[in-house]
């Protein structure tokens, strides 16, 4: 088991990529703290992990709020003593549409979740990692931060910010044995798929997006989880500041 004896916090783990990451980490021996804004979803994933023989707890929380991050750390420490890995997966988007149609409220939300959420994660967990000799952040960015396209301007910008911040954090926190890496998914089937597409998630509309992916399909939660597993594991002990595109060739 590649994460035996480790504890991982996964935000936005009540569905989609986060659920896939949490369940994969649990299968590989990690204790997993399931964070999500949706309490029922978080409890479901934690229960399914437990039924499969793993260890998990559910902690409801909003990644834009400092108090919720503090509660997340407290719950993790209470149940599992030490946190070794934090996966910043929680994210949101504005709908795919012309830039002048994006409202201020939409702009504020996407920045609060995607950028400020990372800020609070770092503020909360860096002191904990330092106190225990190191740790690993795996941040779920996006191909949108590498090859941005029209219609998602401010979402693209937040993922670009995450990528640059992650590299800067890797440089600054390396002496503390804290690694910071990113995974960049291409579009997949999540609760936000129709928002990313800007049209209903129909087979016909999906094909328009699949046409730009050389390997000919959307990403899956397992695809993303596999990359996160590698970066979180001791196999990647000398890797920091990296970003892995899990995109079927989309960014080539």
Overview of the structural elements:
This protein is an alpha/beta fold and 252 residues long. It has a single domain (7-246), classed as NAD(P)-binding Rossmann-like Domain (Rossmann fold), CATH 3.40.50. 45% of the residues lie in helices and 15% in strands. The chain has eight helices and seven strands. The protein has a seven-stranded parallel β-sheet with strand order 3-2-1-4-5-6-7, with helices on both faces. α2 links the parallel β2 (31-36) and β3. α1 (16-27) crosses α8 (221-232) and α3 (66-80) packs parallel to α4 (104-131). The protein is globular. The protein starts with 6 loop residues before the first strand and ends in a 6-residue tail after the last strand.
**Quick one: overall form?**
globular
Provide the CATH top-level class: Alpha Beta
| Beta-strand residue percentage | 15-25%
Which consecutive residue ranges, at least 5 long each, have pLDDT under 50? none
CATH architectural designation: 3-Layer(aba) Sandwich
Radius of gyration: 17 Å
Q: Major β-sheet, in short? A: 7 strands, parallel
CATH-defined topology:
Rossmann fold
List keywords for this structure.
252 residues; Rossmann fold; seven-stranded parallel beta sheet; 8 helices; 7 strands
Task: Write the topology of this structure.
Elements: E1 7-10, H1 16-27, E2 31-36, H2 39-51, E3 55-60, H3 66-80, E4 85-88, H4 104-131, E5 135-140, H5 153-173, E6 178-185, H6 193-197, H7 203-210, H8 221-232, E7 243-246
Parallel strand pairs: 1-2, 1-4, 2-3, 4-5, 5-6, 6-7
Helix pairs in contact: 1-8, 3-4, 4-5
């Amino acid at each position: 088991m590649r994460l035996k004896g480790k504890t991982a916090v996964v935000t936005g783990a009540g569905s989609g990529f986060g659920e896939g990451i949490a369940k994969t980490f649990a299968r590989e021996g990690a204790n997993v703290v399931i964070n999500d804004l949706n309490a029922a979803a978080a409890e479901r994933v934690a229960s399914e992990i437990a039924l499969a023989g793993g260890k998990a707890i559910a902690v409801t929380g909003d990644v834009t709020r400092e108090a919720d991050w503090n509660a997340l750390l407290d719950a993790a420490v209470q149940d599992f003593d030490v946190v070794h890995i934090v996966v910043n997966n929680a994210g949101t988007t504005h709908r795919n549409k012309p830039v002048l149609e994006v409202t201020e409220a939409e702009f504020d939300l996407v920045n609060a979740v995607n950028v400020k959420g990372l800020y609070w994660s770092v503020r909360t967990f860096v002191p904990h990692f330092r106190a225990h000799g190191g740790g690993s952040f795996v941040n779920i960015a996006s191909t949108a931060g590498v090859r941005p396209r029209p219609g998602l301007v401010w979402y693209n910008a937040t993922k670009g910010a995450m990528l640059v911040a992650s590299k800067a954090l890797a440089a600054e926190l390396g002496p503390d044995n804290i690694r910071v890496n990113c995974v960049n998914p291409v579009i997949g089937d999540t609760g936000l798929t129709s928002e990313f597409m800007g049209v209903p998630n129909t087979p016909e509309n999906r094909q328009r997006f699949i046409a730009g992916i050389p390997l000919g399909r959307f990403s899956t939660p397992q695809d993303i989880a596999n990359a996160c597993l590698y970066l979180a594991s001791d196999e990647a002990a000398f890797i920091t500041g990296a970003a892995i595109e899990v995109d079927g060739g989309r960014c080539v």
